[in-house]
Automatic annotation (TrEMBL):
Signal peptide: none
Organism superkingdom: Bacteria
KW Transcription regulation (keyword) present: yes
Keywords: DNA-binding, Repressor, Transcription, Transcription regulation
Organism of origin: Rossellomorea vietnamensis
GO molecular-function term, one example from the UniProt record: DNA-binding transcription factor activity
Protein name per UniProt: MerR family transcriptional regulator
Domain HTH merR-type: 1-42
Keyword Transport: no
Pfam families xref list: MerR (PF00376)
Amino acid sequence: MYKVSEFSKMTGLSKETLRYYAEIKLLEPVYIDPANNYRYYDNGSYLVGRFLVYLKRFNFTIQEMLAVVNDESFENLEALIHAKKRGLEAEIERIQTVIQEMDDFFEMGMEDEWDD
């Protein structure tokens, strides 16, 4: 079993995040020592923790993460990841359009300067 500080380093989740995830029942410790309230995690917790790191990187909301973790079959996971990917692709396209508009704006401005 791993103490919070060790588990935090292993998973990349901060102690504060782990505390919050336990509070909302997203990733609960497997054991809490009644004598000192130290929280402990195990190897199964590690797998869930690393999985949550990926979901967080994939821009999943807390509600979506809870839905995925509570759906133990992971039946909807592939569809959710594809939807997130499509959203990111749309955002990339939007940003590329804005960049092109900026370039066009500068070119217009430079042409106007040279025309004078």
